[in-house]
Design brief:
alpha+beta; four-stranded mixed beta sheet; 14 helices
Protein backbone atom coordinates (compact mmCIF):
# COMPACT_ATOMS: atom_id res chain seq x y z
CA UNK A 1 0.00 0.00 0.00
CA UNK A 2 1.45 3.33 -1.05
CA UNK A 3 1.15 6.34 1.26
CA UNK A 4 -2.22 8.05 1.42
CA UNK A 5 -3.53 10.92 3.49
CA UNK A 6 -6.45 9.36 5.38
CA UNK A 7 -7.32 11.76 8.20
CA UNK A 8 -7.56 14.89 6.08
CA UNK A 9 -4.95 17.12 7.79
CA UNK A 10 -5.01 20.89 7.56
CA UNK A 11 -2.59 23.74 6.93
CA UNK A 12 -2.10 26.44 9.55
CA UNK A 13 -0.74 29.56 7.84
CA UNK A 14 0.42 32.80 9.43
CA UNK A 15 0.42 34.91 6.31
CA UNK A 16 1.41 38.34 5.13
CA UNK A 17 5.13 37.78 5.60
CA UNK A 18 7.87 38.77 3.15
CA UNK A 19 9.56 35.80 1.53
CA UNK A 20 13.20 35.38 0.52
CA UNK A 21 15.59 32.77 -0.76
CA UNK A 22 15.21 30.26 -3.56
CA UNK A 23 12.91 27.38 -4.39
CA UNK A 24 13.21 24.76 -7.13
CA UNK A 25 10.41 23.61 -9.40
CA UNK A 26 9.73 19.89 -9.01
CA UNK A 27 8.98 17.38 -11.75
CA UNK A 28 5.62 17.59 -13.46
CA UNK A 29 2.61 15.72 -12.06
CA UNK A 30 0.82 15.57 -15.39
CA UNK A 31 3.89 14.44 -17.32
CA UNK A 32 4.68 11.78 -14.71
CA UNK A 33 1.13 10.45 -14.88
CA UNK A 34 1.27 10.12 -18.67
CA UNK A 35 4.70 8.49 -18.72
CA UNK A 36 3.90 6.16 -15.82
CA UNK A 37 0.85 4.81 -17.64
CA UNK A 38 2.83 4.83 -20.88
CA UNK A 39 5.29 2.40 -19.26
CA UNK A 40 2.58 -0.29 -19.59
CA UNK A 41 3.37 -0.34 -23.31
CA UNK A 42 6.89 -1.54 -22.60
CA UNK A 43 7.45 -5.22 -21.90
CA UNK A 44 11.02 -4.45 -20.85
CA UNK A 45 12.17 -2.68 -17.69
CA UNK A 46 11.34 1.01 -17.40
CA UNK A 47 13.15 3.23 -14.92
CA UNK A 48 11.46 6.57 -14.39
CA UNK A 49 13.64 9.17 -12.70
CA UNK A 50 12.65 12.26 -10.73
CA UNK A 51 9.06 11.09 -10.23
CA UNK A 52 7.01 13.43 -7.98
CA UNK A 53 6.11 11.89 -4.62
CA UNK A 54 2.43 12.86 -4.58
CA UNK A 55 -0.93 11.23 -3.93
CA UNK A 56 -1.93 11.07 -7.60
CA UNK A 57 1.17 9.01 -8.37
CA UNK A 58 0.63 6.77 -5.34
CA UNK A 59 -2.89 5.93 -6.54
CA UNK A 60 -1.60 5.05 -10.00
CA UNK A 61 1.15 2.87 -8.53
CA UNK A 62 -1.51 0.98 -6.59
CA UNK A 63 -3.47 0.48 -9.81
CA UNK A 64 -0.43 -0.68 -11.77
CA UNK A 65 0.69 -3.10 -9.06
CA UNK A 66 -2.80 -4.55 -8.84
CA UNK A 67 -2.66 -5.69 -12.49
CA UNK A 68 0.57 -7.60 -11.97
CA UNK A 69 3.31 -5.02 -12.56
CA UNK A 70 6.29 -5.18 -10.18
CA UNK A 71 7.26 -1.77 -8.80
CA UNK A 72 10.49 -0.91 -7.01
CA UNK A 73 11.04 2.55 -5.55
CA UNK A 74 14.52 4.02 -5.06
CA UNK A 75 14.27 7.56 -3.74
CA UNK A 76 12.59 9.59 -6.49
CA UNK A 77 13.14 6.82 -9.05
CA UNK A 78 10.63 4.08 -9.88
CA UNK A 79 11.64 0.81 -11.56
CA UNK A 80 8.80 -0.89 -13.43
CA UNK A 81 8.85 -4.54 -14.52
CA UNK A 82 5.71 -5.74 -16.34
CA UNK A 83 4.25 -9.26 -16.20
CA UNK A 84 3.87 -11.40 -19.33
CA UNK A 85 0.16 -10.66 -19.19
CA UNK A 86 -1.57 -7.73 -17.54
CA UNK A 87 -4.32 -8.84 -15.13
CA UNK A 88 -6.87 -6.12 -15.77
CA UNK A 89 -9.56 -8.19 -14.04
CA UNK A 90 -7.69 -7.62 -10.73
CA UNK A 91 -7.49 -3.83 -11.07
CA UNK A 92 -7.71 -1.88 -7.80
CA UNK A 93 -11.03 -0.16 -8.39
CA UNK A 94 -10.85 2.00 -5.28
CA UNK A 95 -7.52 3.55 -6.29
CA UNK A 96 -8.54 3.75 -9.96
CA UNK A 97 -11.67 5.75 -9.21
CA UNK A 98 -9.61 8.41 -7.42
CA UNK A 99 -7.79 9.53 -10.55
CA UNK A 100 -9.16 10.66 -13.91
CA UNK A 101 -5.90 9.54 -15.50
CA UNK A 102 -7.13 5.94 -15.38
CA UNK A 103 -8.75 6.67 -18.78
CA UNK A 104 -5.23 6.60 -20.27
CA UNK A 105 -4.92 2.87 -19.60
CA UNK A 106 -7.21 2.26 -22.59
CA UNK A 107 -4.61 3.42 -25.10
CA UNK A 108 -1.75 1.84 -23.17
CA UNK A 109 -3.29 -1.60 -22.62
CA UNK A 110 -5.31 -2.10 -25.82
CA UNK A 111 -2.15 -2.98 -27.69
CA UNK A 112 -1.61 -5.97 -25.41
CA UNK A 113 -5.16 -7.13 -24.61
CA UNK A 114 -8.16 -7.55 -26.91
CA UNK A 115 -10.79 -7.29 -24.18
CA UNK A 116 -10.72 -5.67 -20.73
CA UNK A 117 -12.56 -3.15 -18.59
CA UNK A 118 -11.59 -0.20 -16.41
CA UNK A 119 -13.55 1.70 -13.74
CA UNK A 120 -15.02 5.06 -14.65
CA UNK A 121 -12.65 7.91 -13.84
CA UNK A 122 -12.61 10.17 -10.80
CA UNK A 123 -10.16 12.93 -9.87
CA UNK A 124 -11.10 16.60 -9.56
CA UNK A 125 -14.84 17.30 -9.34
CA UNK A 126 -15.57 20.30 -11.52
CA UNK A 127 -18.78 19.44 -13.31
CA UNK A 128 -19.40 16.93 -16.06
CA UNK A 129 -16.41 16.21 -18.27
CA UNK A 130 -17.18 14.02 -21.26
CA UNK A 131 -14.94 11.12 -22.28
CA UNK A 132 -16.42 11.09 -25.78
CA UNK A 133 -13.28 12.65 -27.35
CA UNK A 134 -11.34 9.59 -26.13
CA UNK A 135 -13.91 7.23 -27.58
CA UNK A 136 -13.97 9.07 -30.90
CA UNK A 137 -10.15 9.09 -31.13
CA UNK A 138 -9.56 5.45 -30.23
CA UNK A 139 -12.29 4.09 -32.51
CA UNK A 140 -10.10 5.21 -35.43
CA UNK A 141 -7.67 2.44 -34.49
CA UNK A 142 -10.38 -0.26 -34.36
CA UNK A 143 -11.17 -0.05 -30.64
CA UNK A 144 -14.76 -0.34 -29.43
CA UNK A 145 -15.63 1.17 -26.06
CA UNK A 146 -18.92 0.52 -24.30
CA UNK A 147 -19.94 2.69 -21.38
CA UNK A 148 -21.47 0.70 -18.53
CA UNK A 149 -22.90 2.00 -15.25
CA UNK A 150 -19.53 2.30 -13.49
CA UNK A 151 -16.99 1.02 -16.00
CA UNK A 152 -15.81 1.07 -19.60
CA UNK A 153 -15.65 -2.19 -21.57
CA UNK A 154 -12.92 -2.15 -24.21
CA UNK A 155 -12.86 -4.59 -27.14
CA UNK A 156 -10.87 -4.78 -30.36
CA UNK A 157 -9.73 -7.18 -33.04
CA UNK A 158 -6.99 -6.02 -35.41
CA UNK A 159 -5.47 -2.61 -34.71
CA UNK A 160 -5.29 -0.24 -37.67
CA UNK A 161 -3.11 2.83 -38.27
CA UNK A 162 -5.16 5.94 -38.87
CA UNK A 163 -5.10 9.61 -39.81
CA UNK A 164 -7.76 11.63 -38.04
CA UNK A 165 -8.75 14.88 -36.36
CA UNK A 166 -9.32 14.92 -32.61
CA UNK A 167 -12.88 15.84 -31.63
CA UNK A 168 -11.36 18.10 -28.97
CA UNK A 169 -7.82 19.43 -28.51
CA UNK A 170 -7.09 17.96 -25.10
CA UNK A 171 -3.99 16.75 -23.30
CA UNK A 172 -5.24 13.35 -22.12
CA UNK A 173 -7.04 12.49 -25.35
CA UNK A 174 -3.86 13.28 -27.29
CA UNK A 175 -1.89 11.07 -24.90
CA UNK A 176 -4.38 8.22 -25.25
CA UNK A 177 -4.16 8.37 -29.04
CA UNK A 178 -0.36 8.61 -28.91
CA UNK A 179 -0.04 5.50 -26.75
CA UNK A 180 -2.28 3.55 -29.07
CA UNK A 181 -0.52 4.70 -32.23
CA UNK A 182 2.86 3.86 -30.65
CA UNK A 183 1.91 0.16 -30.69
CA UNK A 184 0.99 0.00 -34.40
CA UNK A 185 3.94 -0.49 -36.78
CA UNK A 186 2.62 1.82 -39.51
CA UNK A 187 2.16 5.58 -39.76
CA UNK A 188 -0.67 7.27 -37.89
CA UNK A 189 -1.36 11.01 -37.95
CA UNK A 190 -3.12 12.87 -35.15
CA UNK A 191 -4.43 16.31 -36.15
CA UNK A 192 -5.59 19.06 -33.77
CA UNK A 193 -3.38 17.39 -31.15
CA UNK A 194 -2.33 19.09 -27.93
CA UNK A 195 1.26 20.35 -27.98
CA UNK A 196 1.35 20.87 -24.21
CA UNK A 197 4.24 20.02 -21.90
CA UNK A 198 2.94 16.63 -20.69
CA UNK A 199 2.25 15.54 -24.27
CA UNK A 200 5.80 16.48 -25.24
CA UNK A 201 7.19 14.51 -22.28
CA UNK A 202 5.22 11.45 -23.35
CA UNK A 203 6.57 11.83 -26.91
CA UNK A 204 10.15 12.01 -25.59
CA UNK A 205 9.50 8.83 -23.58
CA UNK A 206 7.99 6.99 -26.54
CA UNK A 207 10.99 7.93 -28.67
CA UNK A 208 13.19 6.22 -26.07
CA UNK A 209 11.14 3.07 -26.71
CA UNK A 210 11.98 3.26 -30.42
CA UNK A 211 8.75 4.89 -31.61
CA UNK A 212 9.31 7.39 -34.44
CA UNK A 213 7.51 10.70 -33.94
CA UNK A 214 7.41 13.86 -36.05
CA UNK A 215 5.76 17.12 -35.08
CA UNK A 216 6.47 17.16 -31.32
CA UNK A 217 5.34 20.56 -30.03
CA UNK A 218 2.91 21.07 -32.93
CA UNK A 219 -0.75 20.24 -33.47
CA UNK A 220 -0.08 17.57 -36.10
CA UNK A 221 1.82 14.53 -34.85
CA UNK A 222 3.00 11.66 -37.06
CA UNK A 223 3.74 8.36 -35.33
CA UNK A 224 5.28 5.17 -36.64
CA UNK A 225 4.87 2.67 -33.85
CA UNK A 226 6.37 -0.68 -32.94
CA UNK A 227 4.66 -3.97 -32.23
CA UNK A 228 5.60 -5.82 -29.02
CA UNK A 229 7.86 -3.14 -27.56
CA UNK A 230 10.43 -4.68 -25.21
CA UNK A 231 13.29 -2.41 -24.24
CA UNK A 232 15.11 -1.54 -21.00
CA UNK A 233 15.14 2.24 -20.74
CA UNK A 234 15.54 5.16 -18.33
CA UNK A 235 13.61 8.39 -18.63
CA UNK A 236 13.73 11.56 -16.51
CA UNK A 237 10.50 13.51 -15.93
CA UNK A 238 10.79 17.21 -16.74
CA UNK A 239 9.82 20.15 -14.54
CA UNK A 240 6.29 21.42 -13.88
CA UNK A 241 5.24 24.82 -15.29
CA UNK A 242 2.12 24.82 -13.12
CA UNK A 243 4.17 24.56 -9.95
CA UNK A 244 6.36 27.41 -11.23
CA UNK A 245 3.19 29.48 -11.64
CA UNK A 246 2.21 28.68 -8.03
CA UNK A 247 5.51 30.16 -6.84
CA UNK A 248 5.13 33.20 -9.10
CA UNK A 249 1.66 33.91 -7.67
CA UNK A 250 2.93 33.41 -4.11
CA UNK A 251 5.77 35.86 -4.72
CA UNK A 252 3.35 38.45 -6.11
CA UNK A 253 0.74 38.32 -3.33
CA UNK A 254 3.49 38.57 -0.67
CA UNK A 255 5.28 41.37 -2.57
CA UNK A 256 8.51 39.40 -2.27
CA UNK A 257 11.79 38.86 -4.08
CA UNK A 258 12.66 35.18 -4.52
CA UNK A 259 14.51 32.97 -6.98
CA UNK A 260 12.44 30.29 -8.71
CA UNK A 261 14.85 27.69 -10.07
CA UNK A 262 14.34 25.21 -12.92
CA UNK A 263 11.25 26.79 -14.50
CA UNK A 264 10.30 25.33 -17.94
CA UNK A 265 10.24 28.63 -19.80
CA UNK A 266 8.58 27.47 -23.05
CA UNK A 267 5.39 26.81 -21.10
CA UNK A 268 5.47 30.06 -19.08
CA UNK A 269 6.32 32.70 -21.68
CA UNK A 270 2.78 33.96 -22.26
CA UNK A 271 1.95 33.93 -18.54
CA UNK A 272 5.08 35.99 -17.84
CA UNK A 273 4.25 38.43 -20.64
CA UNK A 274 0.76 39.04 -19.23
CA UNK A 275 2.22 39.50 -15.75
CA UNK A 276 4.78 41.95 -17.15
CA UNK A 277 1.99 43.98 -18.77
CA UNK A 278 0.24 44.00 -15.38
CA UNK A 279 3.35 45.59 -13.85
CA UNK A 280 5.04 42.55 -12.33
CA UNK A 281 8.82 42.92 -12.24
CA UNK A 282 11.16 40.01 -12.78
CA UNK A 283 14.34 38.85 -14.49
CA UNK A 284 15.19 35.51 -16.04
CA UNK A 285 18.48 33.70 -16.43
CA UNK A 286 19.92 32.19 -19.58
CA UNK A 287 18.30 28.96 -20.72
CA UNK A 288 19.70 25.60 -19.73
CA UNK A 289 18.49 22.04 -20.30
CA UNK A 290 16.53 19.77 -18.01
CA UNK A 291 18.12 16.41 -17.21
CA UNK A 292 16.00 14.89 -19.98
CA UNK A 293 18.14 17.04 -22.34
CA UNK A 294 15.00 18.22 -24.15
CA UNK A 295 13.20 20.78 -21.98
CA UNK A 296 14.49 24.38 -21.70
CA UNK A 297 14.73 25.71 -18.14
CA UNK A 298 15.45 29.13 -16.63
CA UNK A 299 15.71 30.66 -13.18
CA UNK A 300 13.23 33.46 -12.50
CA UNK A 301 14.15 36.30 -10.12
CA UNK A 302 10.99 38.03 -8.87
CA UNK A 303 10.90 41.63 -7.64
CA UNK A 304 8.39 43.39 -5.31
CA UNK A 305 5.63 44.95 -7.40
CA UNK A 306 3.10 46.17 -4.81
CA UNK A 307 1.36 49.34 -5.93
CA UNK A 308 2.52 48.81 -9.51
CA UNK A 309 0.10 46.06 -10.57
CA UNK A 310 -2.76 47.05 -12.84
CA UNK A 311 -5.60 44.97 -14.27
CA UNK A 312 -5.38 44.01 -17.93
CA UNK A 313 -7.96 45.60 -20.18
CA UNK A 314 -8.54 42.32 -22.01
CA UNK A 315 -10.06 39.26 -20.42
CA UNK A 316 -7.67 36.57 -19.22
CA UNK A 317 -8.51 33.16 -20.65
CA UNK A 318 -6.76 29.90 -21.42
CA UNK A 319 -6.13 28.30 -24.80
CA UNK A 320 -4.34 25.13 -25.92
CA UNK A 321 -0.55 25.52 -25.96
CA UNK A 322 1.05 27.87 -26.90
CA UNK A 323 -1.85 29.73 -25.28
CA UNK A 324 -2.09 30.41 -21.58
CA UNK A 325 -2.23 27.06 -19.78
CA UNK A 326 -5.60 25.88 -18.45
CA UNK A 327 -4.04 25.00 -15.08
CA UNK A 328 -2.18 28.31 -14.80
CA UNK A 329 -5.31 30.40 -15.35
CA UNK A 330 -6.62 30.11 -11.74
CA UNK A 331 -3.42 31.65 -10.35
CA UNK A 332 -4.36 34.94 -12.00
CA UNK A 333 -7.26 35.14 -9.52
CA UNK A 334 -5.20 35.87 -6.35
CA UNK A 335 -2.81 37.96 -8.47
CA UNK A 336 -5.71 40.08 -9.78
CA UNK A 337 -6.86 40.82 -6.23
CA UNK A 338 -3.65 42.86 -5.90
CA UNK A 339 -4.00 44.72 -9.22
CA UNK A 340 -5.66 48.13 -9.59
CA UNK A 341 -8.81 47.93 -11.68
CA UNK A 342 -11.23 45.30 -12.91
CA UNK A 343 -10.08 41.89 -14.21
CA UNK A 344 -12.31 39.51 -16.15
CA UNK A 345 -11.21 35.88 -16.01
CA UNK A 346 -12.97 33.45 -18.36
CA UNK A 347 -12.46 29.77 -17.47
CA UNK A 348 -14.37 28.45 -20.49
CA UNK A 349 -12.91 24.94 -20.63
CA UNK A 350 -13.78 23.70 -17.14
CA UNK A 351 -17.39 23.44 -16.23
CA UNK A 352 -18.04 25.11 -12.86
CA UNK A 353 -14.37 25.48 -11.80
CA UNK A 354 -14.80 29.27 -11.69
CA UNK A 355 -17.40 28.84 -8.95
CA UNK A 356 -14.58 27.89 -6.59
CA UNK A 357 -12.71 31.14 -7.39
CA UNK A 358 -15.25 33.12 -5.35
CA UNK A 359 -14.04 31.31 -2.21
CA UNK A 360 -11.36 33.99 -2.07
CA UNK A 361 -14.08 36.47 -1.05
CA UNK A 362 -13.84 34.86 2.38
CA UNK A 363 -10.24 36.13 2.49
CA UNK A 364 -11.09 39.73 1.60
CA UNK A 365 -11.21 39.50 -2.20
CA UNK A 366 -13.88 41.32 -4.23
CA UNK A 367 -14.94 38.67 -6.77
CA UNK A 368 -18.25 38.54 -8.61
CA UNK A 369 -19.28 35.26 -10.17
CA UNK A 370 -20.91 36.11 -13.49
CA UNK A 371 -21.77 32.52 -14.51
CA UNK A 372 -20.16 29.06 -14.07
CA UNK A 373 -17.23 30.14 -16.27
CA UNK A 374 -16.56 33.84 -15.62
CA UNK A 375 -15.55 35.99 -12.66
CA UNK A 376 -14.86 39.72 -12.32
CA UNK A 377 -12.22 40.72 -9.77
CA UNK A 378 -12.00 44.28 -8.41
CA UNK A 379 -8.66 45.29 -6.97
CA UNK A 380 -6.57 45.97 -5.18
CA UNK A 381 -7.95 44.50 -1.97
CA UNK A 382 -6.22 43.72 1.31
CA UNK A 383 -6.32 39.97 1.87
CA UNK A 384 -7.31 38.87 5.36
CA UNK A 385 -6.99 35.59 7.22
CA UNK A 386 -9.79 33.05 7.23
CA UNK A 387 -10.74 29.40 7.54
CA UNK A 388 -11.76 27.41 4.46
CA UNK A 389 -12.24 23.76 3.51
CA UNK A 390 -10.37 22.78 0.34
CA UNK A 391 -12.61 22.31 -2.69
CA UNK A 392 -12.45 18.83 -4.26
CA UNK A 393 -10.20 20.19 -7.02
CA UNK A 394 -6.45 20.79 -7.14
CA UNK A 395 -5.93 24.25 -8.66
CA UNK A 396 -8.83 25.98 -6.85
CA UNK A 397 -7.39 24.60 -3.59
CA UNK A 398 -3.93 25.85 -4.54
CA UNK A 399 -5.06 29.43 -5.19
CA UNK A 400 -6.79 29.56 -1.80
CA UNK A 401 -3.47 28.58 -0.25
CA UNK A 402 -1.69 31.31 -2.26
CA UNK A 403 -4.17 33.91 -1.00
CA UNK A 404 -3.77 32.71 2.61
CA UNK A 405 0.01 33.05 2.35
CA UNK A 406 -0.55 36.67 1.31
CA UNK A 407 -3.17 37.41 3.99
CA UNK A 408 -2.05 38.83 7.32
CA UNK A 409 -2.97 36.75 10.36
CA UNK A 410 -3.72 33.09 11.04
CA UNK A 411 -5.55 31.12 8.34
CA UNK A 412 -6.68 27.50 8.39
CA UNK A 413 -7.02 25.45 5.22
CA UNK A 414 -8.76 22.15 5.95
CA UNK A 415 -8.84 18.80 4.11
CA UNK A 416 -5.72 19.40 2.03
CA UNK A 417 -5.75 16.06 0.20
CA UNK A 418 -6.55 17.94 -3.02
CA UNK A 419 -3.26 19.84 -2.71
CA UNK A 420 -1.24 16.74 -1.85
CA UNK A 421 -2.58 15.15 -5.04
CA UNK A 422 -0.43 17.51 -7.06
CA UNK A 423 2.25 19.16 -4.89
CA UNK A 424 5.06 17.30 -3.15
CA UNK A 425 5.91 18.25 0.46
CA UNK A 426 4.73 21.74 -0.40
CA UNK A 427 4.62 23.04 3.17
CA UNK A 428 8.24 22.02 3.88
CA UNK A 429 9.49 23.63 0.68
CA UNK A 430 7.54 26.83 1.33
CA UNK A 431 8.96 27.02 4.85
CA UNK A 432 12.45 27.33 3.33
CA UNK A 433 11.55 30.63 1.65
CA UNK A 434 9.91 32.04 4.78
CA UNK A 435 6.28 30.94 4.60
CA UNK A 436 4.92 30.30 8.09
CA UNK A 437 2.95 27.16 7.29
CA UNK A 438 2.47 23.89 9.17
CA UNK A 439 0.67 20.67 8.33
CA UNK A 440 -1.27 19.37 11.33
CA UNK A 441 -3.88 16.73 12.06
CA UNK A 442 -7.39 17.79 12.98
CA UNK A 443 -6.47 17.25 16.63
CA UNK A 444 -3.75 19.89 16.24
CA UNK A 445 -0.71 17.57 16.32
CA UNK A 446 2.10 18.18 13.81
CA UNK A 447 2.40 15.87 10.83
Amino acid sequence: MWHEVINMPKFIIHGGKKLKGEISVNSSKNAAVAVLIGSLINQGQTTLKNVPQIEEIYRLLEVIESIGVKIQKKGRDIIINPPKKLRMEDIDKVAAKKTRAIILTIGAVAGRLKRFSIPQAGGCRMGSRTVKPHLFALENFGIKIKTKKDEYLIEREKLNPSEFVLYETGDTVTENALMMAAQIPKKSVIKMASANYQVQDLCFFLEKLGVKIKGIGTTTIEIIGKENIKKNIEYEISEDPIEAMFFLATSIVTNSSIKIKRAPIEFLELELLKLKKMGFQYEISKKYKSKNKRTDLVDIFTRPSKGKLVALEDKIHALPFPGLNQDNLPFFVPIATQARGRTLIHDWAWEKRAIYFSELNRLGADITLMDPHRVIIEGPTKLRAGEIICPPALRPSAIILVAMIGAEGKSVLRDVYSIHRGYEKLEKRLQKIGVDIHLVDDDGSDK
